[in-house]
Amino acid sequence: MAATKLLLTDLASDVKFVPSNYIRPVSDRPNLSEVRTSGTSIPLIDLQGLHGPNHSEIIKQLGQACQHDGFFQVKNHGIPVEIVNKMMRLAREFFRLPESERLKSYSDDPSKTTRLSTSFNVKTEKVANWRDFLRLYCYPIEDYVNEWPTNPPSFREDVANYCTSVRGLVLRLLEAISESLGLKADYIGSALGKHGQHMALNYYPPCPQPDLTYGLPGHTDPNLITVLLQDDVPGLQVLRNGTWIAVNPVPNTFIVNIGDQMQVISNDRYKSVLHRAVVNCNKERISVPTFYCPSPDAVVEPAKDLISDDEPAVYRSFTYAEFYRKFWDRGLATECCLDMFKKT
Ligand code: OGA
Ligand code: NI
């Protein structure tokens, strides 16, 4: 019976109408006809030659993208295509496993470091999202790998290879972004304590009435920087000047976005931008975001070199643990969690 299913995946294929607990109030629907789906969306930055002849040009492009868009795509990112393809294939296979097999990872407790769940936070939210997700902590890998699923059999190996490669890309981006702010290349990396890395395997089933619900409603990411791998089905949208813009998939690229912690460290020069995922009637969609973050004990604050009499610190210092707790307590609300950490 549909109503008793723990996961959306196992109910979505049976329904011709969106069940009432997924229906958004009229004032909070995706208005899909008003979304811009063509023309340039977000900048595409070629990382070829980042450590060679194109260094200063790439730094400039990254700085502009972080400042104006908060979102960009990267190509020639150095992550081998086989590692990426294996990750995507694995994600697809995972969500096709029999229900009983997937449910071994199920939990509705957001504090668990490995868990399969549905929507965003089933304990607190009023309206559910059209999404199932497997969330994994993945740095340091050896602390978490023994919690990860073992089905499909290559799960741990494929995910470990993927996480390690993405971490390498993130570390290169953090150096470049530090430089783009006029800071020493190791500034941001040094401000993150022991560092943290989480990821999600997001599964958005086809939806009979995509106008009534969200895969993920508009939100900013609470972490430092996000690297998103998506399959070839559109769904991600970014808010720019009040208009939602579709980010259409480009093969062999990653989507990178600035999270709340980067906005703080940059003292508001770089923006953590609202984005959302919408669903469609025809095709399942899979995305695999990597959320790179400070470790819980790290003290986050605006970089001293970016503070002056003209540009005083916008935020107080806080630990990432404090921020993360407040973020989860308030749910995936559209209001930016950052406002709670502004200096008064
Ligand atoms: C997220 C997110 C977008 C997507 O998981 O935070 O924004 O396209 N995902 O799945
Ligand atoms: Ni997000």
Structural class, from secondary structure content?
Answer: alpha+beta
Quaternary:
single chain
- Name given to the CATH architecture: Sandwich
Largest sheet strand order: 1-2-10-7-12-5-4-3
The total beta strand count reads 14
Order of helices and strands: HEHEHHEEHHHEEEEEEHEEEEH
InterPro entries: DIOX_N, IPNS-like_FE2OG_OXY, IPNS-like_sf, Oxoglu/Fe-dep_dioxygenase_dom, Plant_2OG-oxidoreductases
Domain Fe2OG dioxygenase: 194-294
GO molecular function: dioxygenase activity; L-ascorbic acid binding; metal ion binding
Family: Belongs to the iron/ascorbate-dependent oxidoreductase family.
List the helices and strands and how they pair.
Elements: H1 9-12, E1 44-46, H2 55-68, E2 71-75, H3 81-96, H4 99-102, E3 114-118, E4 132-139, H5 141-144, H6 155-180, H7 187-190, E5 196-204, E6 216-219, E7 225-230, E8 236-240, E9 243-246, E10 254-258, H8 260-265, E11 275-277, E12 285-293, E13 299-300, E14 318-319, H9 320-330
